[in-house]
Structures are given as structure tokens and as C-alpha cells.
């Protein structure tokens, strides 16, 4: 555990947050001109960039296209300068291909793919700076990019991590908290219906605490959905002012 | 070679069966298939059979320099391989989604849960540590590879023994098994994966899906637990919507299953130990049943026969009752038209012939035809049938 005290007696965490407090989330949409949709999101010190192309005709072999819905293609990568140790392979290793797979599955659940048969939607996500909660930052950024691209979804997909220290669930873990070897749970939620699009948990946790941990992560996701909604609304206001004439 | 796709008929059949809470092999919703664990002659080698799914696991070790970030910890390495031997759908040397998912899940289940004391694998800090390599090979794929792989990996790790080492000054001596007894790994707990398959948008759930069930599933939830009811990893996949209650319910089922399986593994390990001690025969060759033909052999599966007679009768009865009576052509009065149906062709027909179908009509019971014509309504009923036909004739 490296002797780090993750939760002080006063109830504060390493970076001075309370147990249920999220890190500051800042985001912008439409950051690229070429892409159909794009977004940049900062969640504390984790920075993610997401770009969406599509829906367009299936690239490559025809056999990949599905007759009843769109194929979602995700690529996750981490910038070589994103971590403390320089990364050799930005993408293609086991962890990043797993992450791509998870992103794909998350958005297959949330995007109304049946509206676009025989087509493809590309989502490219890049982590510019990694400070814990990479998966959740990617999901949140990609959601904004999909909204920006005008692709219909069931709801916002909000993702957040949660940990468990001394019988207290902690929301939105930073890197120091995540690498301590404690429990960490990543959850992607569709806040309005309360459906879980993806659930992933690592390290040991007693069964009885699972309920509290999932509940904490869900509350955090609901908080995030408000932030994302604000970002979208603000962007729309700005655009409508500019295009009024 | 690509896998043969499942036909729509098969798909519907399977889903219908799942809806009726029946499984092809006669299992209940939360039942596992038969699990059989056999150990090889070498330490750290085992084959796990889960129904017809068959997985081989081999654990090996070597001395390597440790990672810079963790100089006092041994290294665990997991590798799962899907050889084309197991299923025609598996291609050699290809990183398929399934392979990535299985490998990562195995890693997270066994490494991240810290079930093995890696610090005890350190020989000289910063210079030499043991690397434990776990190779899992899938021999036959009949669904639920994850559970089979995790059972195989943890059984093989518990069975494995590494050579003893002695350090004198700067010299490291590795003893052969003849010189000193090899040492087992220290295992804190045994995490075991339990897979739940979800069907029809998550409304139905099955434990231990077989290959065909896996093909019609919507999503999968894998929960790794140990017998102390601690969850070691959770992974949902396949783009399904889960509810919190479902996850909690699954974790409860998983805890029951895991304690059963742990007991089974312990029993198998003890059994093997006993036989080795007694000097009896052990290893794969000894534990295989002596049957010549193995591929054509089928396990006996109980088939539910409780209400077969009733259902059969019901089906027969249902087919005997005539299907919806399609109203036979009805002639309406001359000069009237029916929207949509058109008037009956009367070209080149004598009047007598024309009448024939009409009289037939009157015989059929329960037919009431209301013509769409605005001029008049012709109602054919049982009693008034004759009258009305006469009326229409006159006109």
C-alpha cells in the first residue's frame, strides 16, 4: 500500500477532496473541423480527446457490415508522454486493446445503432495525460463527441470510478489512489434509466460492500451527467448566437 | 475458416427454450455442467473438463531479473491460447476480441486480486526472482471458456511446486527435486470466475452457458470470487444494460457456486496428493477412462418427461381445430361492386352456373357478409339465407 493514507481522520483524501467529491470536469465540444464530432475533456489532471466519424459506409471488407445495425469501431490510445514513464507503444498492447473493446461495448449499448444499418461509426479516443480514471474520461469525452456529431443515443453515457477505503466508498479516484492496489470499480451508466452499460471491478472487496460501492459510483455518474449536459447546452447557446444572422 | 453461423430457426428455438426455463442438456438455470479436474504426472499440470469444454493448464517457472519498479516481487505471467484445434472459429496467431477478453480477465482475476504471495518468490532482491508462467491451452471449446480457464489456472497453481534454492554469499544453488523437495507456492485465496449469460435484453440469465447458448446471448457478466465471499473482479461485456439489483443477485449466486467449486478443487488436490504419497499410479494416462471411442460418446442427459403426454395431446388438438375460416367467395347482387375484392367474373357464364356458388354459400354456417355497396345490404344469415338469395336473384 506504500504507506499512503488515502483517507485522513478528518475525512479528506490525498488531494483534499471529500469522499464523494468529484474532480473538476471541464470540457469543450467541436474542437476539430474535419471530424463529424469531437470533444476535449479534463477530469482533474486526466485529459482526453475524442473524435467521432460517421455514420458512414463500412470501410475495408464488406463482410464486417451488419444488415440490421451500425458497426461501432473504437480505437483507444495513450500519448507517449501521458504517463510518468514514457510509453513505447501508444496503442496495440493488451491493455489498450481491452480498453478499445470496452469502449466499443459501452457505446454499442448506448447508441441507437439500429437506425443506421450497414454503416459504421468510428470513435477515436486519445489520453493526453493520465491521472487515474482513464476509462471514465474516455467514455465521457466520447459521449460529448457523439452528441456533437448528432448521433442519436438512448441517453448520455457517464462513467466514473469508485474505490473503497476503510468502509468508505471514494468517488472518482486519482492515479495515486488507483495504483495503491485497493479496490477500484469503473462503471458506465445511463443516468436517466439507471442502466449500467459497463461494469468492471478489480482487487478484493467483500460481497457485502458491493452495494454501497456501486451506489457511490452511480451517484458520481449522475453528478457527471449534469456537467456534461451543461457543456452541451452551453455549446449550443454559443453556436446559436453565432449563427443567428 | 469462419464459424458456421447459427440459423434463425436454431436461434429462435434456443431463445424459446430459455424463455420456458429449459436448457438443451436438461440443466436448471443455475446449474453447472460436470466439472472434472485431473492432474498430470508433473507438478503444475492439469486438465479441467467442464462438460465438453476442455482446458489444459501448465505452470512453469524460471529465474529472471525483477522489474525495476518492484525489485522484491516475483513475476506472474499469464497466457491463454485459443488453438484452432479447439474450434474451427479460432484462427492461429490472431488477437481476436475473445482472446483479449479472456487473457485480461484471467490476469485480473489472478494477478490483481493478489492471490499469490509474489514477495515469497524473490531470491535476491533486485537481481533474481522467480517468474511463474501460467499457460492455458483450450483443447475443446463448448462454451464458458472463462470459468474453465480460471479453474484450471488456480488448480494448476495450487498443484505447482518450484525447486528449492539456497543462497551462500553470492552463489545461488537451485536444487533438483531429487536433492530437496520442491516447494509449493503460497496461495492466499482461490479466486474462481463464474460467468452469467444474459438473454433477451437481460430478462433471462443462465449460469455456465454452453457454446450454443453463448451464441444467442446478449451479454456476459463474469464475477470472480473466492470462498470467503470476496469479489476479486467483475466484468460485464457485450453491450447489455444491467441493473444494480441484477449485479447484486449474480454476486450472491456466484458466492454459492464458488464455494462448491473450491471444495471440488481441494478434493481433487488432496486425492492427487494421497495417490502420490501411496506411490499409486497418477497422471493423465491413468485417469483417462479406458474407452476406445471418445468423440462419439454422448453423456446421458435427463429429459423432462413430466407433461409430455398432455402437451402432445394439446398440440394434436390444436392442429385438428380448423384454422380461421376463410370466407369462401360470395356473390353479391348483380351490379354491385365490392371495394378491394372486385366483382366476380361473369363473362361467358350461364345464369345457372352463376348461381351455383351462391347456393353453396348459404350452406356454410356463421358467415355474415356485409357488402360494401352503397345501394343495398345483403346479409346472409342462417334463417334468412334462402330469402335473401331469392331477393338478390330477383334483382
From TrEMBL, chain A:
Pfam families, per the entry: RNase_PH, RNase_PH_C
Entry's localization field: Cytoplasm; Nucleus, Nucleolus; Nucleus, Nucleoplasm
GO biological process, alphabetically ordered: nuclear mRNA surveillance; poly(A)-dependent snoRNA 3'-end processing; rRNA catabolic process; rRNA processing; U4 snRNA 3'-end processing
Subunit structure, as described in the record: Component of the RNA exosome core complex (Exo-9), composed of EXOSC1, EXOSC2, EXOSC3, EXOSC4, EXOSC5, EXOSC6, EXOSC7, EXOSC8 and EXOSC9; within the complex interacts with EXOSC2, EXOSC7 and EXOSC9. The catalytically inactive RNA exosome core complex (Exo-9) associates with the catalytic subunit EXOSC10/RRP6. Exo-9 may associate with DIS3 to form the nucleolar exosome complex, or DIS3L to form the cytoplasmic exosome complex.
Domain Exoribonuclease phosphorolytic: 21-152, 155-219
GO CC aspect terms: cytoplasmic exosome (RNase complex); nuclear exosome (RNase complex); nucleolus; nucleoplasm
Matches recorded under PANTHER family: EXOSOME COMPLEX COMPONENT, EXOSOME COMPLEX COMPONENT RRP41
Residues making up the signal peptide according to the UniProt record: none
Entry keyword set: Acetylation, Cytoplasm, Exosome, Nucleus, RNA-binding, rRNA processing
Superkingdom to which the source organism belongs: Eukaryota
InterPro entries: ExoRNase_PH_dom1 (IPR001247), ExoRNase_PH_dom2 (IPR015847), ExoRNase_PH_dom2_sf (IPR036345), PNPase/RNase_PH_dom_sf (IPR027408), Ribosomal_Su5_D2-typ_SF (IPR020568), RNase_PH (IPR050080)
GO molecular function: RNA binding
Recorded name of the encoding gene: exosc4
Similarity annotation: Belongs to the RNase PH family.
Name of the protein in question: Exosome complex component RRP41
From TrEMBL, chain B:
Record localization: Cytoplasm; Nucleus, Nucleolus
Keywords: Cytoplasm, Exosome, Nucleus, RNA-binding, rRNA processing
GO terms (BP aspect): exonucleolytic trimming to generate mature 3'-end of 5.8S rRNA from tricistronic rRNA transcript (SSU-rRNA, 5.8S rRNA, LSU-rRNA); nuclear mRNA surveillance; nuclear polyadenylation-dependent rRNA catabolic process; rRNA catabolic process; TRAMP-dependent tRNA surveillance pathway; U1 snRNA 3'-end processing; U4 snRNA 3'-end processing; U5 snRNA 3'-end processing
CDD domains reported for this sequence: RNase_PH_RRP45 (cd11368)
Cell membrane in keyword set: no
InterPro entries hit by this protein: ExoRNase_PH_dom1 (IPR001247), ExoRNase_PH_dom2 (IPR015847), ExoRNase_PH_dom2_sf (IPR036345), Exosome_comp_Rrp42_subfam (IPR050590), PNPase/RNase_PH_dom_sf (IPR027408), Ribosomal_Su5_D2-typ_SF (IPR020568), Rrp45 (IPR033100)
Domain Exoribonuclease phosphorolytic: 32-163, 189-255
GO cellular component: cytoplasmic exosome (RNase complex); nuclear exosome (RNase complex); nucleolus
Gene Ontology molecular functions: mRNA 3'-UTR AU-rich region binding
Keyword Isomerase: no
Domain of life: Eukaryota
Assigned protein family: Belongs to the RNase PH family.
PANTHER family on file: EXOSOME COMPLEX COMPONENT RRP45, EXOSOME COMPLEX EXONUCLEASE RIBOSOMAL RNA PROCESSING PROTEIN
Name assigned to this protein: Exosome complex component RRP45
Organism, scientific name: Carassius auratus (Goldfish)
Gene: LOC113044196
Amino acid at each position: 500500500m506504500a504507506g499512503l493514507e488515502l483517507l485522513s481522520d478528518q475525512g479528506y483524501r490525498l488531494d483534499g477532496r471529500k469522499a464523494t467529491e468529484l474532480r473538476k470536469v471541464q470540457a469543450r465540444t467541436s474542437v476539430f473541423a474535419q471530424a463529424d464530432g469531437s470533444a476535449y475533456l479534463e477530469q482533474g489532471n486526466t485529459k482526453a480527446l475524442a473524435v467521432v466519424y460517421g455514420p458512414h459506409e463500412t470501410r475495408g471488407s464488406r463482410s464486417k457490415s451488419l444488415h440490421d445495425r451500425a458497426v461501432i469501431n473504437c480505437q483507444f490510445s495513450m500519448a507517449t508522454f501521458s504517463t510518468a514513464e514514457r510509453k513505447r507503444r501508444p496503442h496495440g498492447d493488451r491493455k489498450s486493446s481491452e480498453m478499445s473493446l470496452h469502449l466499443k461495448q459501452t457505446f454499442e449499448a448506448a447508441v441507437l445503432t439500429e437506425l443506421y444499418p450497414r454503416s459504421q461509426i468510428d470513435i477515436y479516443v486519445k489520453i493526453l495525460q493520465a491521472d487515474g480514471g482513464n476509462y471514465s474520461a474516455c467514455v465521457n469525452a466520447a459521449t460529448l463527441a457523439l452528441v456533437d456529431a448528432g448521433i442519436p443515443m438512448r441517453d448520455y453515457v457517464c462513467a466514473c470510478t469508485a474505490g473503497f477505503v476503510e468502509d468508505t466508498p471514494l468517488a472518482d479516484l486519482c492515479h495515486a489512489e488507483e495504483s495503491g492496489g485497493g479496490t477500484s470499480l469503473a462503471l458506465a451508466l445511463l443516468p436517466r434509466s439507471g442502466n449500467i452499460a459497463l461494469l468492471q471491478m478489480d482487487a478484493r472487496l467483500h460481497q457485502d460492500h458491493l452495494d454501497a460501492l456501486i451506489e457511490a459510483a452511480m451517484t458520481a455518474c449522475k453528478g457527471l451527467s449534469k456537467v456534461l449536459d451543461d457543456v452541451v447546452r452551453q455549446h449550443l447557446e454559443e453556436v446559436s448566437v453565432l449563427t443567428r444572422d | 475458416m469462419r464459424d458456421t453461423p447459427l440459423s434463425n430457426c436454431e436461434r429462435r428455438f434456443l431463445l424459446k427454450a430459455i424463455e420456458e426455463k429449459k436448457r438443451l442438456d436438461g440443466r436448471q438455470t443455475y446449474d453447472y455442467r460436470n466439472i472434472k479436474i485431473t492432474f498430470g504426472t508433473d507438478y503444475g499440470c492439469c486438465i479441467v473438463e467442464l462438460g465438453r469444454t476442455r482446458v489444459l493448464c501448465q505452470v512453469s517457472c524460471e529465474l529472471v531479473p525483477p522489474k525495476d519498479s518492484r525489485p522484491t516481487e516475483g513475476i506472474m505471467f499469464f497466457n491463454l491460447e485459443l488453438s484452432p484445434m479447439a474450434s474451427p472459429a479460432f484462427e492461429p496467431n490472431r488477437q481476436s476480441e475473445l482472446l483479449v477478453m479472456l487473457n485480461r480477465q484471467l490476469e485480473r482475476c489472478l494477478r490483481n486480486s493478489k492471490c499469490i504471495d509474489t514477495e515469497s518468490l524473490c531470491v535476491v532482491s533486485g537481481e533474481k526472482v522467480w517468474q511463474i508462467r501460467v499457460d492455458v491451452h483450450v483443447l475443446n471449446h463448448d462454451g464458458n471458456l472463462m470459468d474453465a480457464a480460471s479453474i484450471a489456472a488456480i488448480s494448476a497453481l495450487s498443484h505447482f511446486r518450484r525447486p528449492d534454492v539456497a543462497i551462500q554469499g553470492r552463489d545461488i544453488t537451485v536444487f533438483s527435486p531429487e536433492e530437496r523437495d520442491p516447494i509449493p507456492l503460497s496461495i492466499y485465496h482461490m479466486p474462481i470466475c463464474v460467468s452469467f449469460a444474459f438473454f433477451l435484453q437481460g430478462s433471462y440469465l443462465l449460469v455456465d452457458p454452453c457454446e450454443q447458448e453463448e451464441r444467442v446471448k446478449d451479454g456476459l457478466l463474469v464475477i470472480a470470487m473466492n470462498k470467503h465471499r470476496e469479489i476479486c473482479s467483475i466484468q460485464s461485456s457485450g453491450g447489455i444494460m444491467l441493473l444494480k439489483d441484477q449485479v447484486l443477485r449474480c454476486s450472491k449466486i456466484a458466492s454459492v457456486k464458488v464455494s462448491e467449486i473450491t471444495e471440488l478443487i481441494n478434493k481433487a488436490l488432496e486425492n492427487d496428493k494421497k495417490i502420490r504419497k501411496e506411490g499409486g499410479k497418477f497422471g493423465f494416462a491413468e485417469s483417462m477412462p479406458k474407452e476406445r471411442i471418445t468423440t462419439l460418446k454422448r453423456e446421458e442427459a435427463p429429459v423432462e418427461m413430466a407433461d409430455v403426454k398432455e402437451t402432445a395431446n394439446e398440440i394434436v388438438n390444436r392442429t385438428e381445430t380448423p384454422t380461421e375460416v376463410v370466407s369462401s367467395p360470395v356473390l353479391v347482387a348483380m351490379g354491385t361492386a365490392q371495394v378491394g375484392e372486385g366483382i366476380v367474373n361473369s363473362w361467358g357464364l350461364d345464369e345457372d352456373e352463376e348461381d351455383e356458388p351462391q347456393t353453396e354459400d348459404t350452406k356454410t354456417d356463421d358467415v355474415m357478409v356485409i357488402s360494401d355497396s352503397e345501394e343495398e345490404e345483403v346479409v346472409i344469415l342462417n334463417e334468412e339465407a334462402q330469402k335473401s338469395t331469392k331477393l338478390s336473384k330477383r334483382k
